[in-house]
Amino acid sequence: MGEDAESPKINHTFLRDYxxxxxxxxxxxxxxxxxxxxxxxxxxxxxIFQRETESKGESEEAGETGxxxxxxxxxxxxxxxxxxxxxxxxxxxxxINKIKWLSQQNAAHFLLSTNDKTIKLWKVSERDKRPEGxxxxxxxxxxxxxxxxxxxxxPVLKPTDLMVExxxxxxxxxxxxxxxxxxxxxxxxxxxxxxxDLRINMWHLGITDRSFNIVxxxxxxxEDLTEVITAAEFHPHHCHLFVYSSSKGTLRLCDMRASALCxxxxxxxxxxxxxxxxxxxxxxxxxxxxxxxxxxxxYLLTRDYLTAKVWDLNMxxxxxxxYQVHEYLRSKLCSLYENDCIFDKFECVWNSSDSVIMxxxxxxxxxxxxxxxxxxxxxEAWRESSKPRAVLRTRRVYTGGKRRxxxxxxxxxxxxxxxxxxxxxxSENIIAIAATNNLYIFQDRVNPETQVQ
Length: 453
Known about the structure:
The chain is mainly β and 453 residues long.
């Protein structure tokens, strides 16, 4: 994207001045309509943002077209508390690892949230009326003396201030020995999967005391362990298909129609390694940190440490597209290993038409790639450019050759400012970026295919 090209514009930002570990955002997720956006943090809190609709007059007065409002805080609640496993003498953090919305069936919204061990189902609903005129209770809810009741009345509903209620409906516990890294809701609307390092379980949303183990890669002798499960997701349309990724860089597509226990995969997606480029860090940087089905269900998007890859479900010999996210870090792998950055788990997402992919990087940078042209653009989420309606400018990392004004040198990158978590609106050009304890929401007025160059 050229310097003068039109870039995504900032829709809204939610910034906190004081950074504490508990405030660091650990997951971001839009619901199916995109009207609600949920974030979870390391303090176990879930914050839900709602998209405010603007009237036509307000939109025209602002000089914008096609913009239907900003996101404002809708509800905040404590999802998980710190816990302690007394049998294993192990502390269980309250950090929210993943949030997934269920398809909306009525006026209420439902979402799943999980920490390392326990998954919870929450109901989010609105109430703008309250009942009055009880026969056995007074206005403060206390029981009346029955002997004082001389007549019966019909309770009525009266308008009151809008209240957003968030209530726990189910708690799915004791299903995992290891840390939960993924949850995914099935297209049947009745079941979901949860994955930890060695096992994947399938749950029914109405049953909390048992789950069905569908993948178990734990060896009889743990010394024989060679890989772990890093992410898992159901197919968006076929309720019998799911995929999971491993620390060895492989993807396994499983079909539950073939076998109840899916230890034997239907397809294995793996890229052959070049022996000439093998190094001490090869296995670490090839570990897949995230996997996502495309909206049409035809492709898989994965992210490893240096690249993002697109795989065709019909071609298991290797990826059909490979995008270099920050290849300039290959010479820095030794120092990245020493400061543990090499183990960072970056997420990746598709846009609504599966034509553009997005993933994060360091120095508050995030990358977008146009699949048709193969070109990428680097954008930055930072506080100084966080004014509403501001236009994002592209950034470039200087690795040699002619240095342009505004370029950032590789040695000047801030590795503490990392973009790990993000989400893309299901139908519009709106993205949510989590940068440490800040949430940025960007909106692009122009088709993203014209933006990424």
